[in-house]
Amino acid sequence: MLFRQLFDQDTWTYTYLIADPQTREAALVDPVIEKVERDFQLLKELGLKLKFCIETHVHADHITGTGKLRELTNCEGIVPENAQVSCASRLIKHGDVLQVGNIKIQAIATLGHTDSHMAYLVNGDRVLTGDALFIRGCGRTDFQSGDPGTLYDFVTQNLFTLPDETLVYPGHDYRGQTVSTIGEEKQWNPRFAGRTRDQFIELMNNLNLPNPKKIMEAVPANEQCGQVAIASS
């Protein structure tokens, strides 16, 4: 399997490239519109055919590159079920499996950061956790119908039940970390380790974080697969 972790320094976002080196089929998870040229060039250099752009959720901090990549490559845009994204090529629900060559990408429901969010288990040994679980942290729950109790339930029941050695690749990192494991996060993640559900809810309800800078433009743009930004650029 070809697996690349790509970074957008302006929004601290990780985009993931997954490809089968034999069939040359590829998928991008959480592409960023400002990095479409980089991602498209990389696909060309590696001789890959983009089959899917896959979203973990409707992002509030950056605009997706899916719409532009779909124009360039005719890939499918995959969005979690119940997201308000009518332009998606296909909605994906918990347990669904996308096939990229011989690579299996399985959707795992991880609601709570927003009311429609998926993590993706890739080839059974690594999980792309989006904003549901960060390295020593997690996504906030105070907008887009977020709910801390729901996030606690889905992380502890759907992610922390994966094998401890499962690699964790988050949607963002703000401290320069790139990869962790489920076992590490169960032991050392300060949002979850040693906390009851009620304690987690109290913690999340008192973070008092400012809104993301791009929330007013990013959410409506992402509900249209990033096409608003393309039309105005």
TrEMBL record:
GO biological process, one term: glutathione metabolic process
Classification via Gene3D superfamilies: Ribonuclease Z/Hydroxyacylglutathione hydrolase-like
Residue ranges of every copy of the Metallo-beta-lactamase domain listed in the record: 12-172
Signal peptide: none
PANTHER family for this protein: PERSULFIDE DIOXYGENASE ETHE1, PERSULFIDE DIOXYGENASE ETHE1, MITOCHONDRIAL
Entry cofactors: Fe(2+)
Superkingdom: Bacteria
Protein family according to the UniProt entry: Belongs to the metallo-beta-lactamase superfamily. Glyoxalase II family.
Swiss-Prot/TrEMBL keywords: Acetylation, Dioxygenase, Hydrolase, Iron, Metal-binding, Oxidoreductase, Transit peptide
GO molecular-function term, one example from the UniProt record: hydrolase activity
Coiled coil: none
Protein name: Zn-dependent hydrolase
